């Protein structure tokens, strides 16, 4: 029997609303858990499955924080869980297909435990067609909420649990920036710190500006306070998060405080390692490059998505730069920060991409000397402009292009590891290697995976490792004093 939808709260997303940008000033509000919500989770457990980018990982830590404040504890298995939240990603079709499969699989638990609350959250929940499909064919999903209203989880759970009604509340556009949110972090020495939300770039292939709303920066005071607290808790590394961190502060033009300034201020807090992701080439300025050079705690690693090497394709993607201007920015970065490791994202098979366009991409990869890249075949996202572009390239050709691109990219990975042979690098030890319990694994300052023999008591510390072997995907080394 299917449950009734609670109509008091019913809000489904609307992509034409999500596309809109207003000049509205974004207010800051403080999260507070109401007394009535404090004991709801007593004797109950939760699980959160996270898909997609670091933004989602950070959101899942907030969801966990809220649930734990309500008294829930983390379950040890799906069977024992009273709430399962799927925090989803909508970036490509295959990301979504995985979720559909998972939702189908979870139906069995729901049959065994009708009180289980199954929730769909994250970027897929922001899509009109997804919500329609879930309401119609995935009736075992009890709760749908989006990326803009995570702070309202307590109310939703209360309704889903006690009124036993389906709750659907997805806002098409962003609301206030909510501060004072509790977080249950997944790591003890590495942490995500949001510095901004949303994206205003509207690359024509991308769903993110629709699922995450308008670009809005957190105040520097809040960001700095969060990092300070992490330092006090003994954290060694922070990764500053935003879809386009290089635009930090640009929505608050009046004070001229931008990403480079933020890096310098965070550097003063004595956290060992500062990383950030992701950057848009057209907002990357000299001030940021100089801050990376001058700040000893900002790591010499830069992920700078290029997407394509063809000027025609870049224009159709609405990327606001050319192959030449990208290479200029990149060269300037490498000049200002010598030895910096640069990686990228590339899409092949964008509608109208010809063999010549693709060869331009290969040429750019060669010239840029990337030390790694995430490579993707273009995926149509309903509601984005590119979904309507004529796409005549056969799938097989796209796959071939991806294969040819990856060969070049992999050669770059190997050049990027080989340059550290016989050098001593600093490694933040993450844990034991996935493949061998006696081996420790961690990342160097240049973000290279390093494996070496050592005692597990070193986990969470920064140690010196002399590199003895360089492979495409990792380095091997020996612990030194
Ligand atoms: N804001 C970040 C990351 C966005 S998503 C940035 O701009 O770099 C990560 C990557 O997914 C993008 O850089 C892009 O390469 C890829 N991507 C986004 N939409 C896609 C689509 N529709 N098809 C294929 N790849 C896509
Ligand atoms: Fe998507 Fe472009 Fe924004 Fe990145 S910058 S999230 S690719 S629209
Ligand atoms: Fe995916 Fe949303 Fe991140 S679409 S990549 S989870 S912003």
From TrEMBL:
The keyword Methyltransferase does not apply. Its main location: cytoplasm. [4Fe-4S] cluster 1 binds at residues 53, 89, 123. GO terms for cellular component: cytosol. It is found in: Cytoplasm. Its EC number is 2.8.4.3. Binds 2 [4Fe-4S] clusters. One cluster is coordinated with 3 cysteines and an exchangeable S-adenosyl-L-methionine. Its cofactor is [4Fe-4S] cluster. CDD domains: Radical_SAM (cd01335). [4Fe-4S] cluster 2 binds at residues 199, 203, 206. It is an enzyme of class 2 (transferase). NCBIfam families: miaB-methiolase (TIGR01574), MiaB/RimO family radical SAM methylthiotransferase (TIGR00089). Belongs to the methylthiotransferase family. MiaB subfamily. Monomer. Catalyzes the methylthiolation of N6-(dimethylallyl)adenosine (i(6)A), leading to the formation of 2-methylthio-N6-(dimethylallyl)adenosine (ms(2)i(6)A) at position 37 in tRNAs that read codons beginning with uridine. This is tRNA-2-methylthio-N(6)-dimethylallyladenosine synthase. It comes from Mariniplasma anaerobium.
């Amino acid at each position: 029997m299917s449950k009734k939808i609670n109509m008091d709260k019913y809000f489904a997303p609307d992509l034409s609303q999500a596309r809109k940008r207003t000049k509205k000033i974004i207010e800051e509000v403080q999260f507070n858990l109401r007394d009535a919500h404090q004991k709801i989770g007593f004797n109950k457990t939760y699980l959160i499955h996270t898909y997609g980018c670091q933004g989602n990982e950070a959101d899942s830590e907030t969801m966990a924080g809220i649930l734990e404040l309500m008294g829930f504890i983390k379950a040890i298995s799906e069977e024992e869980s009273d709430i399962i939240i799927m925090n989803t990603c909508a970036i490509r079709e295959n990301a979504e297909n995985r979720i559909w499969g998972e939702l189908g699989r979870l139906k069995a638990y729901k049959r065994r435990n009708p009180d289980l609350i199954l929730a769909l959250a994250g970027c897929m929940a922001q899509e009109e067609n997804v919500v329609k499909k879930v309401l119609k064919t995935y009736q075992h999903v009890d709760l749908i909420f989006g990326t803009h209203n995570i702070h309202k989880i307590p109310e939703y759970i209360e309704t889903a649990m006690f009124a036993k009604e389906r709750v659907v509340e997805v806002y098409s556009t962003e609301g206030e920036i909510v501060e004072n949110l509790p977080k249950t972090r997944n790591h003890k020495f590495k942490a995500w710190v949001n510095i901004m939300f949303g994206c205003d770039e509207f690359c024509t292939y991308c769903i993110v500006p629709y699922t995450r709303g308008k670009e809005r920066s957190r105040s520097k005071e809040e960001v700095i306070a969060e990092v300070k607290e992490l330092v006090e808790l003994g954290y060694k590394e922070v990764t500053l998060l935003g879809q386009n961190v290089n635009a930090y502060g640009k929505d608050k033009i009046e004070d001229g405080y931008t990403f480079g300034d933020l890096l310098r201020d965070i550097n003063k807090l004595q956290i060992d390692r500062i990383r950030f992701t992701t950057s848009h080439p057209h907002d990357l300025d000299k001030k940021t490059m100089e801050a990376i050079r001058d700040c000893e705690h900002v790591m010499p690693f830069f992920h700078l998505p290029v997407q394509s090497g063809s000027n025609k394709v870049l224009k159709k993607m609405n990327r606001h730069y050319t192959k030449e201007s990208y290479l200029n920015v990149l060269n300037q970065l490498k000049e200002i920060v010598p030895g910096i490791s640069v990686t990228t994202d590339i899409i092949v098979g964008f509608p109208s991409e010809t063999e010549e366009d693709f060869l331009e991409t290969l040429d750019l990869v060669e010239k840029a000397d990337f030390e790694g890249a995430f490579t993707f075949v273009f995926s149509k996202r309903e509601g984005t402009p590119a979904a309507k572009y004529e796409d005549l390239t056969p799938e097989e050709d796209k796959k071939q292009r991806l294969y040819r691109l990856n060969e070049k990219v992999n050669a770059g990975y190997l050049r990027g590891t080989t340059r550290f042979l016989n050098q001593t690098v600093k490694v933040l030890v993450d844990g034991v290697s996935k493949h061998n319990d006696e081996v420790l694994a961690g990342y160097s300052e240049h973000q290279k995976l390093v494996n070496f023999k050592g005692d597990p008591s070193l986990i969470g510390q920064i140690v010196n490792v002399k590199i003895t072997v360089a492979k495409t995907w990792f380095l091997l080394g020996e612990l030194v004093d």
